[in-house]
Amino acid sequence: GAGVSQSPSNKVTEKGKDVELRCDPISGHTALYWYRQSLGQGLEFLIYFQGNSAPDKSGLPSDRFSAERTGESVSTLTIQRTQQEDSAVYLCASSLGGSVEAFFGQGTRLTVV
Amino acid sequence: GQSLEQPSEVTAVEGAIVQINCTYQTSGFYGLSWYQQHDGGAPTFLSYNALDGLEETGRFSSFLSRSDSYGYLLLQELQMKDSASYFCAVREDNYGQNFVFGPGTRLSVLP
């Protein structure tokens, strides 16, 4: 596809379960970001990948959160032992190296019940 | 610490001009971006200012004053479709491309 693709679009999970969120960036984009957006709020930075460099994990809220990226393609955000406060929309974005314009996916709406 | 401030809501009528302000306090500053997000949609890039002054792109313009840690987005000839949330975002790091986002301003355009 031409844009950033995220799956699933919606996920309902029980408290304590693990979830995996997937992001397919635009082909050729070396930078990939994960953000979290709570209802009516701004975007909270989680993690940033740039090429083969070590990722910037400074925004991950706890050690229950982790993310991986395979080369310069797919990324997976994993949340272990989900809590109700993890409920939010998780947005992925990608950009060309050196570009300040980030292209966002439609997000995954996570609901922890 | 880092903080960005924006008005939470702005209301205007079709055809009018509206200015959405953004003030920031961050550990580093290399530029200010603006994004638009319609309800349920993905944020989309509008503009980026690295230097002081006004950048114009069609009906939208963005301004930056680094000495005042301040910027604004100016929307002219408002249309109903401009009703959305608008976020400013600061680029803190010259090596990375990570941005810190503001809380967003919800713009409502009335007929």
Derived from helix and strand composition plus strand pairing, the structural class of chain A reads: mainly beta
Number of alpha- plus pi-helical segments of chain B: 0
Mean pLDDT of chain A: 93
| Rg for CA atoms of chain B | 13 Å
Terminus-to-terminus distance of chain A: 32 Å
Helical content class of chain A: under 10%
pLDDT < 50 stretches of chain A: none
Strand content of chain B: over 45%
Mean of all residue-level pLDDT scores of chain B? 93
Pattern of helices and strands of chain A: EEEEEEEEEE
Structural class of chain B: mainly beta
| Biggest chain-to-chain interface with counts | A-B, 25 and 21 residues
Radius of gyration of chain A: 13 Å
What is the helix fraction of residues of chain B, given as a range? under 10%
Task: Identify the quaternary structure here.
Answer: heterodimer
**What is the terminal-to-terminal distance of chain B?**
41 Å
Overall 3D shape of chain B: globular
**What is the H/E order of chain B?**
EEEEEEEEEEE
Low-confidence stretches of chain B: none
Structure description:
The complex is a heterodimer of chains A (113) and B (111). Chain A is built from no helices and 10 strands. Chain A has 113 residues and is mainly β. In chain A, the strands form 2 sheets. In chain A, strands 2, 4, 5, 8, 9 and 10 form a 6-stranded mixed beta sheet that branches. Chain A has a 4-stranded antiparallel beta sheet with strand order 1-3-7-6, with no helix packed on it. Chain A is globular. Chain B contains no helices and 11 strands. Chain B is an all-beta fold. In chain B, strands 2, 4, 5, 9, 10 and 11 form a 6-stranded mixed beta sheet that branches. Chain B has a 5-stranded antiparallel beta sheet with strand order 1-3-8-7-6, with no helix packed on it. The radius of gyration of chain B is 13 Å and the shape is globular. The chains are: A mainly beta (113), B mainly beta (111).
